[in-house]
Write a structure and sequence with these properties.
There is one protein chain. The chain has 16 helices and ten strands. The strands form three sheets. It has a six-stranded mixed β-sheet. A two-stranded parallel sheet has the order 1-5. A two-stranded antiparallel sheet has the order 4-7. It is α/β, with parallel strands linked by helices.
Length: 340
């Protein structure tokens, strides 16, 4: 149901990691210079695939090949992995990346009646503006970035900080020749369809039995999202070169550079602002990362037990960090090999 996606999941699932800055930088005067760093274009190979395997005495060696994804990626890149089609074509299943899906118990007319309420949930309470809810130094930084990337948009001044930050971020990465997805999922979908390989969702589904009550709860216990807002401003003002470097490293398959570039606290700050809010527990959104991990890991274990070969997609940070999904499988006795 798209209206609830707009309220919750655009933030939970759509915010891309970028290099972190301290929240204390809220008082730093903004320096929004045109950046010399450029992103790669044309045909690029992308990163190599991770290999997860375990030998079964009865059925032999079962393997799962894993692609690490990243956001943002170069907008003008044409991703063309030489090994991808061969791997997907030889697999029985494609495990889709972890996600959250919201299902609301309303019919067609229910959606129409909920639209005004959903739209109002995006706004600050009591008709307040961003200038009224943000500290003055933070609002001053917002004004500079808003003019640069959003122009004279007056309506956004009444949005909650977390939604205003997301809109600003989307426009900023586009202006810097970056794309949120790079078309990676679409390419995988097309290859799976071409070879008749089943795609297996690994989504955590949230069922909202009473959508009106959910929207009301969201309004009553709004997220404390100033930290998320500041992290976003920090990223756009200071970290675009690092984002471009990470995007280029993914596109060219440079894992050494990816390992060396710091990931972001922005994503975690923005997700936490929602999951820590009062409405999150009643909707089952208070422990999303752990629930997603449990569902994906269960699907991976089953695929490795049932299929001679499986292809899977995971966020790159889950492949690189020491306590990520593949680290969990390694600790359980699976053999995990990084690409050369």
């Amino acid at each position: 149901m798209r209206l609830l996606h707009a309220i919750f999941l655009s933030v939970l699932c759509g915010l891309a990691p970028v290099a972190a800055q301290s929240v204390m930088s809220s008082a730093v005067p903004p320096q929004v210079a045109d950046l010399a760093a450029v992103v790669v274009t044309g045909v690029q190979p992308g990163p190599g695939l991770w290999k997860v395997s375990r030998k079964d005495p009865a059925t032999g060696n079962h393997v799962m090949w894993v692609l690490g994804t990243l956001s943002p990626l170069p907008r003008s890149m044409q991703w063309q992995s030489r090994e991808l089609e061969q791997v997907i074509g030889g697999s029985r299943q494609v495990l889709l990346p972890p996600s959250v899906k919201v299902k609301a118990d309303v019919g067609f007319f229910g959606k129409l009646f909920l639209l005004p309420s959903a739209y109002s949930a995006r706004k600050n309470g009591d008709g307040q503006t961003l200038q009224q809810v943000l500290p003055p130094p933070v609002y001053a930084r917002w004004q500079v970035l808003k003019q640069k990337f959003l122009g004279d948009d007056r309506g956004i001044e009444r949005w909650r900080p977390i939604f205003a930050a997301q809109e600003l971020y989307k426009k900023a990465i586009k202006a810097n020749d970056l794309s949120r997805s790079g078309g990676v999922q679409a390419s995988v979908d097309a290859l799976a369809s071409r070879h008749g390989v089943t795609e297996v969702p690994t989504s955590y589904q949230v069922v909202i039995a009473h959508p009106r009550a959910a929207i009301k709860a969201f309004k009553a216990s709004a997220p404390h999202d100033t930290t998320c807002f500041i992290r976003t401003l920090d990223s756009i003002e200071h970290d675009m070169p690092a984002m471009k470097a990470r995007a280029n490293a993914w596109a060219t398959g440079d894992l050494q550079t990816l390992r060396g570039l710091p990931d972001s606290a922005r994503h975690e700050a923005c997700v936490s602002s929602l999951t820590d809010a009062g409405f999150a527990h009643s909707l089952g959104l208070d422990d999303v990362p752990a629930r997603q991990a449990a569902i994906w890991l269960a699907a991976a274990r089953k695929a490795l037990a049932d299929n001679p070969q499986t292809f899977a997609i995971l966020p790159m940070d889950e492949l690189l960090k020491p306590d990520g999904y593949l680290a969990t499988l390694r600790a359980e006795g699976y053999e995990v090999e990084a690409p050369e």
